Amino acid sequence: MLETLQPWAPWPQSLNPWMKTPSTHTSASTSTSSYSTPTQTPQIRPHSQSYFTSTPSQVTKDPSLALPRILCLHGGGTNSRIFRSQCRALRARLGPYFRLVFADAPFFTTPGPDVVSVYEKWGPFRAWFPPGYGMSGSPHNGPVPICENDSASQIVISSIESSINAAMNEDNSLGATGPWIGILGFSQGAKMAASLLLRQQINPGHGYSRAIDYRFAVLLAGRAPMVSLSLDDDMPYYGLVPATLTLPTIHVHGTKDPGLPLHRELLDYGCDEGSTRLIEWDGEHRVPIRSKDVLAVVDAILGVARETGVLRRC
Q1: pLDDT tier at 275 (50, 70, 90 boundaries)?
Q2: Rounded to whole angstroms, how far apart are CA atoms 251 and 75?
Q3: pLDDT at position 234 over 90
Q4: Biased composition, Low complexity: where in the chain (predicted)?
Q5: Per-residue confidence at 154, pLDDT binned at 50, 70, 90?
Q6: Which active-site residues does the annotation give?
Q7: Would you tell me the crossing angle of helices 188-202 and 260-270 to the nearest 10 degrees?
Q8: What average pLDDT score do residues 244-250 get?
Q9: Pairing state between β 180-186 and 125-127
């Protein structure tokens, strides 16, 4: 459970405890060695010859760099490293087809109760919203505002956009060139994934420093309601302009998950019936790892990818 947000005044300095702090890099170019100089004179080879018996082979290029990319958004109280580990079975199956890129959320928070038992030392832990924000409202009336204060909402939205753009820029710097074609999120990250897909549906390209064309979203335990990620007049607001997702979505529900009613509300009221696929598996609030469950999710992703033209039909 996220902690209660303290009053934000003056704004935005009070948001700082939850926001990312810029990382610093220390150059190693000025370091000096503490080892003493050897006193023994090294032997000199009488003839010029290579120390290598053969020419070193070139570094093999990562074959995933040109693959279509899926943006992966972790749940609240975890981080990108933890989510990458939680998705290990999915990554193994999707690896031949997609490059999965994991982003860190912008706000610091406490770890989730199910996170500590395995990933206690894998902090810092992060969330996509400050505590208590973007969580209330009925899914029957479209996306909800992040909060009632437009200035506060805009800072949160800008922070989310900066985090996602940072992950994309970092992957580009590694040499990746594939198009961004989908989003995969778990729990709070699934709520964010659905909200990002809705924003693209209504206002393509908004919020990114590059051309983005998400074709689908994979929502693992994603709960209603979605949130409004724009203050523009063309973005629907809670209670004013009901909106549903018509872009394809894959919903993955654990039948033992305590949040299942809210997950079903996102499916039933947040998405157009003809654009969804539902996968239910015998599990609680976590990412599927058993082969049978993972294969069902992967088959659905590959099917939607082929239908939307991301992958060629076999």
Answers
A1: very high
A2: 15
A3: no
A4: 21-42
A5: very high
A6: 187, 257, 285
A7: 10
A8: 95
A9: unpaired
- Nearest-CA neighbor of 225 among 245, 208, 255? 245
Which token pair is 183?
Answer: 């989003």
- How far apart, in whole angstroms, are the C-alpha atoms of residue 273 and residue 267? 8
- CA–CA dist 102, 98 (Å, integer): 13
Which whole-number Å values give the CA distances from 115 to 74, 97, 112, 128, 148, in the listed order? Answer: 12, 29, 5, 16, 31
Supply the pLDDT for residue 61: 82
CA distance 107 to 18: 4
Residue 281: predicted pLDDT: 98
Which of 159, 78, 16, 126 has its CA nearest to residue 6? 16
- Amino acid occupying residue 81: R
The runs of H, that is alpha helices, within the chain are 80-86, 88-94, 116-119, 150-173, 188-202, 260-270, 291-307
Which domains, from first to last, does the chain contain? 63-307 (3.40.50.1820)
